[in-house]
Amino acid sequence: MFWNQKELACQEMVELVTDYLEGALSRAQRRRFEAHLAGCENCTEYLRQMRVTIRATGSLAAEDMTAQMREELTELYRRWRAEEE
Amino acid sequence: MYLGLIAAIVLPRRVRRGSAPADADGELVARLRAGEEDAFVALVARHNASMLRLASSLVPSRTLAEEVVQDTWVGVLRGLDGFAERSSFRTWLLRILVNRATTTGVRERRTIAVGDAGPVVDRARFDASGAWMSPPQHWVEESEERLLAQGLAGELNAALAALPDRQREVVMLRDVDGLSGQEVCAVLDISDANQRVLLHRGRSQLRQALEDELGGV
């Protein structure tokens, strides 16, 4: 109970940030986390950067499939069909 | 606002890839069962890139990765009748891939190295009370252009490649391919708690890589 009241340190915050974003914190932990954020510009910035990092990672383009691989896989399908029949 | 701008420019591709995969896959799988080659080609187009990326993380060479991907498609065709649709097609497909990669003998199923247990941010950046002494540098606002510039993808890819295997696999599946945490647990056969730890360590290192690259602007 008492630990809930204790203020969260920045160093603890950076370790909890993924659990926070994943919705994996207990209600009490979440409250502490948000109370800390409300008063800490640096941690607010840190959280923002984590979000931007996640978005930037999501933007990494997939390598286009080579024509050769596409052909090989279509060929693989046709062979399989032929075996099935 | 800058977040919105970044999102507008970098997200469409992700949204396209991530939107309603289950439904579209379900329809394609039904058509594949009915023997439609087009449906196979469409499933390949949807999933091959993720498969190749994951396989490349699991086995040591590109050639082997391509073999694993081909083996996986063979496994999909052979196993189609047994696919119970209890899991999503994508989860089922990627599980087959992980199994193929493992059974090639190239990679043993590793015990889960959750990783060095050290902190994700250098201890020296905090004072004795745990407050920031060397706070995060502000790079988001100032570096918008560079974030959007071509070079950043190279930096991020390099940082991703430098992650320990399991962290890289979790981050790729979650943040590049857009799988849910639950799907990732099923694909890699890890617990939810481990998945979160790996994701946390991986993402934190990518953030640090961006700060190293863009900070102090």
Describe the structure.
The complex is a heterodimer of chains A (85) and B (217). Chain A is mostly helical. Helix content of chain A is 76%, strand content 0%. Chain A is elongated. In chain A, 25% of the residues are buried. Chain B is mainly alpha-helical. Chain B has two domains: 86 residues, Rna Polymerase Sigma Factor, Chain: A (Orthogonal Bundle); 92 residues, Winged helix-like DNA-binding domain superfamily/Winged helix DNA-binding domain (Arc Repressor Mutant, subunit A, Orthogonal Bundle), CATH 1.10.10. In chain B, 67% of the residues lie in helices and 0% in strands. Chain B is built from ten helices and no strands. In chain B, α5 packs parallel to α9 and α7 packs across α10. The two termini of chain B are 19 Å apart.
How is this structure best summarized?
The complex is a heterodimer of chains A (85) and B (217). Chain A has 85 residues and is mostly helical. Chain A has helices at residues 2-5, 10-21, 27-39, 41-58, 67-84.
Strand and helix layout:
The complex is a heterodimer of chains A (85) and B (217).
Chain A lengths: L1 H4 L4 H12 L5 H13 L1 H18 L8 H18 L1
Helix pairs in contact in A: 2-4, 3-4
Chain B lengths: L1 H17 L2 H13 L3 H22 L3 H18 L9 H15 L40 H5 L2 H12 L2 H12 L4 H8 L3 H23 L3
Helix pairs in contact in B: 2-3, 3-4, 3-5, 3-8, 4-5, 5-9, 7-10, 8-10
- Strand segment tally of chain B: 0
CATH fold-level name of the largest domain in chain B:
Arc Repressor Mutant, subunit A
Low-confidence stretches of chain A: none
> What is the CATH topology descriptor of chain A?
Arc Repressor Mutant, subunit A
The percent of residues in helical segments of chain A reads: over 70%
Number of helices in the DSSP assignment of chain A:
5
Helix count from the secondary structure assignment of chain B: 10
Kindly report the average pLDDT value of chain A: 89
What is the architecture of chain A at the second tier of CATH? Orthogonal Bundle
Distance between the termini of chain B: 19 Å
**Main beta sheet of chain B: strand number and arrangement?**
none
Give the CATH H-level superfamily of the largest domain in chain B: Winged helix-like DNA-binding domain superfamily/Winged helix DNA-binding domain
Class by SSE composition of chain B: mainly alpha
Helix residue percentage of chain B: 55-70%
Rg from alpha-carbon coordinates of chain A: 24 Å
How many beta-strand segments of chain A? 0
* Number of discrete domains of chain A: 1
Global mean pLDDT of chain B: 83
